[in-house]
Design goal:
The complex is a heterodimer.
Chain A: H1 5-16, H2 18-35, H3 37-40, E1 47-50, E2 53-55, H4 80-88, H5 94-107, E3 119-121, H6 158-194, H7 196-211, H8 214-225, H9 229-240, H10 242-255, H11 259-266, H12 271-308, H13 319-328, H14 333-361
Antiparallel strand pairs in A: 1-2, 1-3
Helix pairs in contact in A: 1-14, 2-14, 4-5, 6-7, 6-9, 6-10, 6-12, 6-14, 8-9, 10-12, 11-12, 12-13, 12-14, 13-14
Chain B: E1 9-24, E2 29-45, E3 49-53, H1 60-67, E4 75-80, E5 83-84, H2 90-93, E6 100-103, H3 117-128, H4 133-146, H5 163-175, E7 181-185, H6 193-210, E8 213-218, H7 221-227, E9 230-235, E10 238-244, H8 245-250, H9 255-262, H10 269-274, E11 315-318, E12 321-323, H11 327-330
Parallel strand pairs in B: 3-8, 3-9, 6-7, 7-8
Antiparallel strand pairs in B: 1-2, 1-4, 4-5, 9-10, 10-12, 11-12
Helix pairs in contact in B: 3-4, 3-5, 4-5, 5-6
Classes of the chains: A mainly alpha, B alpha/beta.
Chain lengths: 368, 331
């Protein structure tokens, strides 16, 4: 599809706003990376060669028995026994002297008929967000060579949790904002375009709806149905869509009396097509202006619910929960610093990006 | 009432009223009406141009829009091409829309700045025809030729055109569906004088070529004299005089028409100085509170007692010449 000159101009404007452009590049890179979180931070190896047989435990299920062990349950790749089974090709001695055999396999000193040299490729961070790290010491342990940002109060790797948590937060924001924007724009469009009684009735309904204390509803519904990501997203959308209605409604109220809208009506263009083709593009600018607040607001809502303990399930990788742990463990400042910088960088990048988008949409603003 | 044995009327408007409600007070009660158009009747004959003149705010544009049913009218009957559309719901008007089109006053505002000329002119075709994209393209080019726009400009946006060119785009859009009746709502008011003549001549050429019927709304009396077959004069929501062009300009019957005509600028300086201008006193009354009796009684230089009591009847004073004034009753 060819871009219209107007959109080309917007793209050019956005590109020439260096702060916004680079924020988008960095954010896109970070979010792109986090989409592959399973390959970046996982407690299963990406690729395993067992007796010359290539396996990808990240994607498939392999029991310990598949590697010559005893249990039919999923292999615990983090344990020395399983690692030994893999590198030696399933030698029985692994259950007694795993470390020696691993060292021997690496040095190539094992002479045995059962020995088939194997290898594993691990993700950069060999822990998933819910892996309990097996290291000695008190629970929030300080950053080290194995845990770059330390561990939290249940000995889970903070960096792994941040990567997964970042992805979850952004994904949550995208889902919530896109769905509630669509609903909000539609509702605002209908109200503004038709006006009169439709508008009046709808506005009163929205006023009542916005008056419902959403936090209580979330707590009550979670108590009945149990916590889950999609339920939370649904509830936030349910109470979040009116935020765009006002702006879109105002734009439609203004635009429905434009001469070219009248002209389209005189041509017999159906209402919905007038709304879509002639009025909506005007309302988009106002919508885009509000977007940064909605996105950062959605991330903030998720974080604050998690912080209060009313958000996602306790096992979910959540930045809000990290913040709560930081507050409870002031002796472990890496938690607080991690939470702070994650939020600060993520929200700043988003605000810079949307600021650039908004300026690019502004017809009066020109860039060199 | 306004029958003409020779020509057949394409548009018949009877007692058209367009009142806009006023809501005020704490409970937003309906406290009154702005009587923008208050009982207007006229015919437009096939192939003619009916000029509709009057000062700002007298309801000319509202009248034009109401005739095309861009508003839901208060009361009255509108018959276009034999079809009564006065009370038809908006949804059912769609199939009739191609017959009646409109050229708008401000060519800047009446074209969507986000659409190309091609898509603007093509929009009516998209809505009302089932032509293929290629046929539509051909038709758009044909229309652009007809209104004197270069075909190569089809991909450009309205901002790239001058006012006159934009008005041509608007005219091409109105012509796209081969309408019979076009309401020209002050199509030249926003243009330079040099361009006005071009656009008016274009409208005349198109009328001849396609057999169009115009309702030409304007406040420019000389331009109306040039283009119109018959002229209707409006004052405060009512037609005060309706006559063939020459008759109206030569012998205006209504005092308001007289005053209006005396305000036309005279290019000859020697005549200019001799012109006896009728200067009306006071302002136009609010259309929400029109005066009792004749609407013009507050400013009429020839006002009589009866004018403040009873509303004059709009009737034929000479063949084809209609006016609403008590002065004409006596003579």
């Amino acid at each position: 599809m060819r871009l219209s000159p107007l959109n080309q101009r917007r793209l050019r404007n956005f590109r020439s706003n260096r702060r916004a452009y680079w924020s988008l590049v960095i954010f896109g890179f970070l979010f792109g990376l986090s989409l592959f979180a399973e390959l970046l931070a996982n407690d299963k190896p990406i690729l395993v060669s067992y007796r010359g047989d290539l396996r990808m435990p990240v994607f498939g299920f392999y029991s310990e028995r598949d590697f010559g062990g005893d249990f039919p349950t999923e292999a615990l790749y983090g344990t020395a026994e399983v690692q030994c089974l893999i590198v030696t090709g399933g030698m029985v001695d692994c259950f007694d002297e795993a470390e020696t055999l691993i060292a021997g396999a690496a040095a190539g000193t094992i002479v045995s008929e059962d020995f088939h040299k194997g290898w594993m490729v691990w993700p950069i961070i060999p822990y998933a967000y819910d892996t309990i790290v097996n290291i000695p010491g008190v629970a929030p342990s300080a950053p080290s060579a194995t845990n770059w940002l330390g561990t939290d109060d249940t000995k889970r790797d903070v960096l792994a949790r941040v990567i997964y948590g970042f992805r979850l937060s952004v994904f949550f924001a995208i889902v919530v904002v896109s769905v509630s924007s669509i609903i909000g724009v539609l509702a605002g469009a209908v109200q503004g375009y038709f006006g009169g009684w439709v508008d009046l009735t709808f506005q009163r309904i929205i006023e009542i709806w916005s008056g419902i204390p959403s936090l209580y509803v979330i707590i009550i519904v979670f108590a009945i149905l149990g916590r889950s990501f999609w339920l939370l997203a649904f509830l936030i959308i349910l109470f979040g869509w009116p935020s765009l209605v006002g702006v879109v409604r105002a734009e439609f109220l203004r635009a429905r009396n434009f001469e070219y809208v009248r002209a389209a009506r005189a041509l017999g263009v159906p209402d919905w097509r007038i709304m879509l083709r002639h009025v909506l593009p005007n309302a988009m600018v106002a919508t885009v202006t509000l977007m940064p607040f909605l996105v950062t607001g959605a991330i903030g809502t998720l974080a604050s619910l998690d912080f209060l303990g009313f958000g996602l399930p306790a096992s979910a990788p959540s930045l809000g929960e990290l913040t709560l742990q930081a507050k409870q463990n002031l002796q472990a400042p890496w938690l607080a610093f991690t939470a702070f910088f994650t939020f600060a960088i993520m929200l700043s990048l988003l605000v810079f990006i949307f600021e650039g988008v908004r300026d690019a949409f502004d017809p009066r603003k020109t860039f060199a | 009432m306004l029958d003409n044995p020779v020509k057949k009327p394409l548009v018949k408007v009877r007692d058209l009223k367009m009142h806009f409600p006023i809501y005020s007070g704490f409970f937003q009660r309906h406290t009154g009406n702005v009587k923008a158009v208050d009982g207007v009747s006229f015919d437009v004959f096939e192939g003619e141009t009916l000029g509709l003149v009057g000062e700002s705010g007298c309801g000319k544009s509202t009248c034009g829009r109401a005739v095309l049913r861009l508003y839901d009218i208060t009361t009255g009957s509108i018959e276009i091409d034999g079809k009564e559309i006065g009370a038809t719901p908006q949804a059912d008007l769609r199939p009739i829309r191609p017959t009646m089109q409109m050229v708008f006053q401000d060519p800047q505002a009446s074209l969507n700045p986000r659409m190309t000329v091609q898509s603007i002119i093509q929009e009516p075709l998209d809505e009302h025809t089932k032509l293929s994209q290629k046929e539509k393209q051909e038709k758009v080019w044909e229309l652009m030729d007809a209104v004197g726009l270069n075909r190569r400009f089809a991909g450009r946006y309205p901002h790239a055109f001058s006012g006159g060119q934009r008005q041509r785009i608007g005219i091409a859009r109105a012509l796209a569906l081969n309408p019979k009746f076009i309401v020209c709502d002050e199509p030249i008011a926003a243009l330079d004088v040099s361009i006005q003549a071009q656009v008016v001549n274009l409208l005349e050429d198109l009328q001849e070529k396609y057999g169009l019927t115009y309702l030409f709304i304007s406040h420019d009396l000389s331009m109306v004299r040039h283009i119109a077959t018959r002229v209707a004069v409006m004052y405060l929501g009512k037609i005060v005089e309706l006559a063939p062009r020459e008759a109206l300009y030569a012998s205006p019957q209504h005092p308001y028409t007289e005053a209006l005509l005396s305000a036309v600028p005279e290019p000859d300086p020697s005549l200019e100085s001799r012109a006896d201008r009728i200067i009306l006193q006071g302002d136009v009354p609010s259309p929400s509170k029109p005066p009792k009796g004749c609407n013009f009684c507050t400013r009429c230089p020839k006002v009589m007692d009866i004018c403040k009591e009873t509303e004059p009847e709009f009737k034929e004073v000479k063949p084809g010449h209609f006016a609403a004034c008590h002065l004409l009753d006596k003579s």
